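Table 4 source record.
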Amino acid sequence: MSIKDPFGNTQGLKPNQLKRIQNLYRRRVRPWQLISPEFSKALCELSRELNRQLGVLLDRRGYVEWVIVGNAQRMYLPDVGRLRGGRTHFRGLRLVHTHIRNEPLSRDDLTDLALLRLDYVAAICADDQGKPGQVFGAHLLPGDTSLEPWRLEVFKDVFELEMDFLAMVTALEEEFARKVDLPAVEAGEIRAVLVAVTPNVSTGEDILTELAELARTAGVDIGGKVIQVRPKPDPRYVVGKGRLEELVVETMQKGAELIIFGSNLTAAQARAIADFTELKVLDRTQLILDIFAQRASSKDGKLQVELAQLKYTLPRLTAQDSGLSRLTGEIGGRGPGETKLEIDRRRARERIAKLERQIKKLSKQRAVRRAKRIRNRLPTVSIVGYTNAGKSTLLNQLTKSNVFVEDKLFATLDPTSRRLRFPRDRQVIITDTVGFIQDLPDDLFNAFRATLEELTHADLLLHIVDVADPRMEKQTEAVIRILDQLELSRVPRLLLLNKSDLLTDNRGPIIARRKNGILISAAKKEGFKDFLAAVEQILWQEGAAEKGHIFNDKY
């Protein structure tokens, strides 16, 4: 077999020492052995002579994949590639290395075990004569555990390593597979663990509830939820390095390959976590952008989504990938030229400018249509509210339309307008808009500002609220904040407390009186008589404001 150079701290080694280290690649242990006594002795003798830690990564056939040289305190592992196939499989490699200070497994050893999903980690203590002594080992534990996600083992010497290593690893993987008892992921789906980092548990639960709805809407299977209580997020890893190590094992136990954070990550945090875990990492903004990309159907909506994605991605374009650092110096472009990264950034900026021009043009076209409606003197009523509050259902019931309705967030992205006829030959244009959400990402808010500008010309806003949702108060406040951002506080507002049929007690009338709103059920067409009478009074009768049917931001 070909002999590779050892990895790590080889500086200062003598040629004969380097050759003896390289010869470790020629050794092999039996598959059922963790390591043989002869191999252990060779490692310890060399390690003591070098006064450096020395280790090997062995595959399941017993061949040496890597020889690693560290310093007296620690060693760094090479890039051993991506995970093995299968959600519950280990890496297929075991790390056996020396300790020259008679110390147990270090935190680094256990971190490598967890993050790389190694089959096993063992440290052999080399005594002053270079003989193998006590052995410290560890392997991952299957299933949920409130303790450490690994089991530590201690052996008096290498002769005590009588385990059938291959059988043990196979049994552990089978146990992991049994513990991952969630239903199988459907084709095209990916399983994720959701993470919220907050100062208190109750806030974390609210964040995870909404994040779970977003994930479900995006077609993500939820494998688990994690709340990390800390005063403020870790500047590098959000949850802290130690908790992130445990999170990697939890994702393996849940059969997940994606981590979704309930807060927005900086570009540096996203890279650090992805590099540390080798898992795919998303934040709340990326998840919402993905949903919008799936659901946008009109030309306007698709342009706005692409614009928001590019604005989000541009500051995250880095030279992390070596392929992005290649220079392009062809004929006419001598000298250093532009790097691939610079070209990507320039193209992204050019595309952003082009999209903004196209969106501005579409905005002008909408303005022409609005002017035509104004000339025809048709009042405009716009439905606003938190996502999944029932806006599209209300529009369908009022106008006998067939606007897409689904019990998921952001079922409607593209504004839909219909005519609604009132008695005495009166008509209004009623418009369904994109649902609002708490802490709407700035890039999305700015991209959809052109669409939401329709609201500024509305004669009445129907603010629809899910009265059965325990987060109703926070959702109402979030919508009011966005309306204020759009400078819509002067547009008359009518509060509709929807989904009253889902209330299991008699709180509905009490909430309606307290909120000065009208109780309805869009799905069952209940309460429509009162609310339509209120709309008619606001639009066509004088003194409506004094009668209490116009509501601003005080409900």
